Amino acid sequence: MKSQLKKYLPALAYFYHHLRYKLLLLLTVSILVGLLDGLGLAMFLPLLELVANQDAQATTAQMGNLAFILNGLQSLGLPLTLTVMLLTMLVFFCLKGVAKYIETYLNTVYQQYFIRKIRVENIDALTHYSYQSFVSADAGGIQNTLSGEMERVVQAFRTYNRMLQQIVMVLSYMALAFLANPEFAILVVIGGAVSNYLFSTLYKKTKALSGQLVQSNHAFQGLLLQKVAFFKYLKATGAIHLYAANLKAKVYEIEDRVRQMGILNSIMQGVREPLMVGIVVMVILVQVNLMGGNFSTMILSLLFFYRGLSSVMQVQTNYNQFLSFSGSLENMSNFVANLKAYREEYGRQESMPFANNIKLAHLSFGYQKGDLILRDINLNLNRNETLAIVGESGSGKTTLMNIISGLLLPTQGQMSIDGVNSRDLDMRSIQQRIGYITQEAVVFDDTVFNNVTFWAEKNEANLQRFWTALQQANIFEFVQEQHDVEDARLGNNGINLSGGQKQRISIARELYKEVDFLLMDEATSALDSETERAIQVNIDQLKGKYTILIIAHRLSTIRNADRVVVLKQGKIEHMGSYQDLVDKSISFKRMVKLQEL
Description:
Blueprint: H1 2-8, H2 10-19, H3 21-42, H4 44-51, H5 68-75, H6 82-127, H7 131-134, H8 139-146, H9 148-180, H10 182-229, H11 231-236, H12 240-290, H13 295-341, E1 357-365, E2 374-382, E3 386-391, H14 397-404, E4 412-417, E5 420-421, H15 427-431, E6 434-438, H16 448-453, H17 460-472, H18 476-480, H19 499-512, E7 517-521, H20 529-542, E8 547-551, E9 563-568, E10 571-576, H21 578-584, H22 586-596
Parallel strand pairs: 3-8, 3-9, 6-7, 7-8
Antiparallel strand pairs: 1-2, 1-4, 4-5, 9-10
Helix pairs in contact: 1-2, 3-6, 3-9, 4-6, 6-9, 8-10, 9-10, 9-13, 10-12, 10-13, 12-13, 17-19, 21-22
């Protein structure tokens, strides 16, 4: 059943997956609204009969199979007078009003439930997405799907939900019309099917444009993200105007896609009603002149189809609008499925506090088979040891750090932590004890306190830890001098800070966490010499208190490391103390001399 639903009605399967019984409840209430509305309309025939003689009683002859309404009133002992007919009609429409209120309320509540569930699902899927898959993913596509596409998926739900409710209304009116006059109802349904066939080409064109719009939005978001990220370079080199032209081209492309969909929708809006009324007129002429139909029951059926006609037009309108959003719905479904397909795998064993060492045994890694970045790495990283990794660009330094931090899994060999294979460990418990400082410091557009404490509750204990971390990172005085002190806002990516201040904020954040490991990936290479030396003093003060792994571009920053590992083309070429390598390693000695020039 599920597979058939996904194959032939993928949108319905998607919405049902997220709403379950809620979607069925909405449709049930819509059925009730349609039936009550139809029963109220059915009372117009006996009312018309009584207009000529208000003292008479209505008869069931003109109501066809809907005569059960009047029969029911008679069984209750009620006379079929004008007053009873009016009050009965009022009761039906009052009940319809109650049902409509429930329908509208449920629509609002369930729509918000759907939005919340989609957003939470996206957040969870992205949270557990493997880093190895993320590095090759389309950043613009991810950004666009989580922001712009989210709103279009919500619009898809709104239009599809309205379409389903209108379909239910149409079916309700059709059922009542069949009861009143089956022949007339069948002819109108055939006419409606013909009109829908005429629109099918427009539907296909709209759906194709929707898919193209999604791709254009992805490209636009990707370009926009990069313009913000590389704004300084683009501005300084004068390339920003050329880049802007490329960005504007995407804007025009998106506008053109939306305009084409608007034209198609306008055509359908303009043609739909005249076409449907023309079909009804033809059916009436055929039944009266060729089939000798009962005009009274035909009028009652026409009342139902008049109501149904509005619903049919709404179905077609909403369906076309849904098709304009269907590309986003398909994209969202594929996006989440892809995130889940490459979900990070975690072992079941919780890690204990780090006690002894991390051991890499015959470890190799490559993103693709046969294309290894690291080859046969054998290495021990002892607790509270400071280990530095050096090597030429592309030698595998960052990849090795990514494996130690649990971002990547070995292709061959293994990594063990305190004797336990990393594949058997829940690496999240390890990563929570890792402090990570990169060349481009991570600074959030928020206050100093929230940046360092990661939005912890602002109580006395956390404030004490916060100020202690600032002192350890040698940025205590800077924060104290700010007008809002710890509540000073740092701006987008720390725009209000110097490079050194950014790094100190990053160091303070990691120290606030009470970590076991400090990983530093060229953390000072983008700083001036004076700032670098100041931060290096801070790092040296932490030596022996944490297990520190340093990737260094400037070799002067690793003089005090316990051991230095020299990588070359993915292999460990030499390993030892700084002085040992200067004495024994020709390549390391050459690197030192080059930096001394």
